[in-house]
Amino acid sequence: MADRFSNGNVGNDDGGLGPDPMVSGYDPTNKGFYNGGDLSGLLDKIDYIQGLGTTSIWLTPSFKNKAVQTEDKSAGYHGYWVTDFTQIDPHLGTNDELKALIDEAHSRGMKVYFDIITNHTADVIGYEEGARKAYVSKDAEPYKTAAGEEFDDRDYARSKDFPALDPATSFPYTPVLDPGEADLKVPSWLNDPALYHNRGNTTFVGEDSYYGDFFGLDDLFTEHPTVVDGMEEIYKSWIGEFGVDGFRIDTMKHVDNEFWQEFGPEVLRYAKEQGKDEFFMFGEVFDTTKSFTSQFTTRNQMQAVLDFPFQDAARNFASKSKDTRTLETFFAGDDWYTDADSNVYQLPTFLGNHDMGRIGSFIAEDNPGASDAEQLARDQLAHELMYFSRGNPVIYYGDEQGFTGPGGDQDARQTLFASQVPEYLNDDLLGTDATHATDNFNPGHPLYSKISQLAALTKEHPALRDGAHQHRYASDGPGIYAFSRTDSKDQREYVVALNNSGQAQTAEVPTYIAKRSYTRLYGEAPEEAKTSADGKLTVTVPPLSAVVYQSSGRIPHSKEAPAVVLQEPVPAPADNGRIKVTADVGGTSFYEVTFEAKTADGGWAPIGTDDTAPYQVFDDVAALEAGTALEYRATVLDNGGHTATSQSRRAVVPAPVLTMQKPEEGSSVQGSVELSAIADPEKASHVVTFERSVAGGEWTAVGSDDSSPVYSVVDDLAALELADDTPVQYRGIMTGPGFSVVSEPRTVRVGEAPQPDSVTVAGSLNVQMGCAEWDPACAQAMMTLDPADKIWRLTVDLPAGQYSYKAALNGGWDEDYGAGGVRGGADITLDHPGGPVTFRYDNSTHLLSALYSSQQPQAVSVAGSVGLALGCADNWLPECEKAQLTLDPADLVWKLSVAKLAPGPYEFKAALNRSWKENYGAGGVPNGANVAFTHDGGPVTFRYDHFTHLITAN
Q: Which of 181, 193, 422, 902 is deepest in the core (most CB within 10 A)?
């Protein structure tokens, strides 16, 4: 992060914008503002960088940013609020200084990677309806062409026939630009508000994770060909004119697949035209599920993604001393990334980063009572695992100096030069008595020395960087995890053994070679060891450390290729768009197995090569129609150059799987019930029809939806007048070429859901509340039930950072709900800008959400026939002051209490921002029917919840 590395030129600290921090963004005492680092400083310190063993420098975004976004009370020092994609941010230097840095790096044999953004720009676009609005789904308000016709953008992604759009009528919110910022963005096409999604703020899950604004940042319409072409041209120019060697791509999972399928191959093609045969792109997919993260390197044709699953596994192993078999399971899933032109070895691995936090902070958090020596040893162990295992290791600046910090985001962005930020001055660094009050460019720091040593060793022995990674041994519980690395040409085996326990451990590690001497290259262990007759190497590893042995010669050549038999290909259990193809190979030597596939009218084509047992690939067939006939075979290559090919096995492309998301199984429902489903694999051509069965009766149609990627309709149970406790089932049906599928039904019951005894926001944020991480009994994280609307709420003030959490019921983990309200579901993520946040849990849907006051409208009124009774000049006046509700900051519910309202029947709606442009009626429906209310006279409170858009009176 250039702003936080080294300040080589104090003359550019304020970016030429003057001394006011709220204009220039420069305040070296504030962790959320520019601190002064620049490209000149990077160039000055390039010897320090190279001395670490660095072969490439990855810069966080360096384009010109909106210096300050007043709503966020922070500055664009991080680079993610871009206004000009053609210019280096003046706080960091000039385009010429970037060119000088790249040229110097190239002269040293180093590469320079740019962190790039395609998902969003700075927050420039506002909405007529108010700032930073809540997300509006495509089902609630579809996109409209300039002619007013509804359409689904996914039907036109990557198409030059994308419909013309009108900013005034095509979007759920009406985009507006401040006259002074109408031409702010560069290139000029970025100033067209019709090239943005304009749907309001994302919650980072479901449909809105693709279409929503990140805390108001203008979310680009990446399905639009103008955006695709424009982004390609922007980034081609940095390759052609400046010689950038690769890209780290921000927020990749929040951009549609079709964008990457066009962008990746085109940019790579251009780079190779410029002579950059090793040009490399890797995306940020913040997820720890390999079946998901791998889709971007297989289905979406990108070269690599950041290995977030590795980060999680490495922390569990080195910092938490988890059972070493978890590493065995982790590496066994590497085949998800194997396809014809990429594999897991290309993935950049890392231990912490600028968003989630540093490895030093995780170790301090996981081992609060440990000595500095133990914490340092765990840090070194994590780096040993990263350097010796498969992948491309990434060091986050400052980790080599033992930086820690209390969390992610701003709390993980300390300066390497002397800091003036009070929060940073309180950090306790690992392995040193130094503080952030002085420069920290110490090549003698034990972590700098360790990383330099690891880099030098892997440079001298390339197999430790690029060789096949073969699992060898995992202890029962904490202890030794061992693997071998073998180069396919050199055929020399390296055995790596790591111990994550507090005591020395001994293990018999299987190898490829019997009765062979192995020489120690690294660690504290005997210099020589010999394998037994059955090929096992006995190793003893000191606590929290690693040893590496090298075989004295090549693996003996096989005399003939082993037998290879293909198992029956089956749909992959975690990705129905892929087929798992596995080969059983006889023998115990080093082999490479290449898998091939063909359709009935095609020839054999390679789909991937695996060099570690078990030998398998996950063939991506999502683009093919269900029922398409396939054929697979496998060819094994032994280390003597012999080959053998299996008999082929047949398979067919499976039908898509349709899964209901809402309502939650076993939940209680009343009135309007939202039904939703997703398809695997997803295609824009899918149409889902929803059906209902009452009390075991016939299935009847509720409605259908063709708007991907989430299909949803709303069922009005109130019209059926069902008795409480009546069972109702819902299901989805989808028919297409070669398939007709029905989802598993979801059963719900009519009536009010019984409330739990307690609800806790349990997660990584509990530490900030004064409890242990993921503590379901944390009193400070327990929510309060509002009896008026049966919603549980909790408002807390949290530091900026990225958090994970769930709803834990009744003080334990027997019942918990994650993303999408799924019981036992995935963690919910919160990318928090810092400050108050209100959590909201609805036990009828089990949805737990985080809300901000910045997402609220500017005003809410109860507009209707109640107006005169409230003292307004007339009924149905949304601008009437006496009808305005007030936002309660404790629960983010709008309220208006009236001491005495005359008896009678009334009708009303929620009118936002003192007009009828945005209003919500019965059931929270936009422009919906009036809410009917009969009052007996006396006090009444009107309440409006902007999350559901429901307005009530009681």
A: 193
Cβ burial of 602 (10 Å; 0-12, 13-18, 19+) is exposed
Question: How far is 891 from 914, CA to CA, in rounded Å?
Answer: 22
Read off the DSSP letter of residue 28. Answer: T
Quote the pTM value.
0.85
- Please list the active-site residues: 250, 284
Question: Which amino acid appears at position 29 of this protein?
Answer: T
CA distance 193 to 25: 26
Q: How far apart are CA 196 and CA 218, in angstroms?
A: 7
Question: Cα-flanking dihedrals φ and ψ of residue 696, to 5°?
Answer: 80, 10
pLDDT digits 0-9 by tens, 151-200: 999 999 989 999 999 999 999 999 999 999 999 999 999 999 999 999 99
- Contact present, 25 and 15 (Cβ < 8 Å): yes
How crowded is residue 311: how many other Cβ atoms within 10 Å of its Cβ?
Answer: 22
CA dist 561 and 563 (Å) reads 7
- Measured distance CA(925)–CA(903) in Å, rounded: 27
Q: Is the pLDDT of residue 392 over 90?
A: yes
Which 8-state DSSP code applies to residue 826?
P
Concatenated DSSP letters of 586-598: -SSS-EEEEEEEE
CA separation, residue 523 to residues 545, 762, 937 (Å):
7, 40, 82
State the DSSP code for 646.
P
What string of H, E and C letters represents the secondary structure of 237-272?
HHHHHHCCCEEEECCHHHCCHHHHHHHHHHHHHHHH
Which DSSP helix (H) or strand (E) runs through 211?
A: helix 208-211
CA 808 to chain centre: 23
Structure tokens at 662: 């809402």
Q: In whole angstroms, what separates CA 229 from the centre of its chain?
A: 25
**Residues whose CB is less than 8 angstroms from the CB of residue 857 and which lie 6 or more positions away in sequence, other chains included:** 129, 130, 133, 912, 913, 918, 946
Query: What pLDDT, in 10s, does the model give residues 433-465?
Result: 999 999 999 999 999 999 999 999 999 999 999
**Residues 6 or more apart whose Cβ sits within 8 Å of residue 131:** 71, 216, 854, 858
Q: Is the dihedral of CA 159, 165, 170, 173 positive or negative?
A: positive
Angle between helices 372-388 and 359-366 (to 10 degrees): 130
Give residue 343's pLDDT band: very low, low, confident or very high (50, 70, 90): very high
Mean pLDDT of all residues in 518-526: 98
Residues paired with 247 in a beta bridge: 114, 281
**What pLDDT score was predicted for residue 673?**
92
Strand 82-88 relative to strand 74-75: parallel, antiparallel, unpaired?
A: unpaired
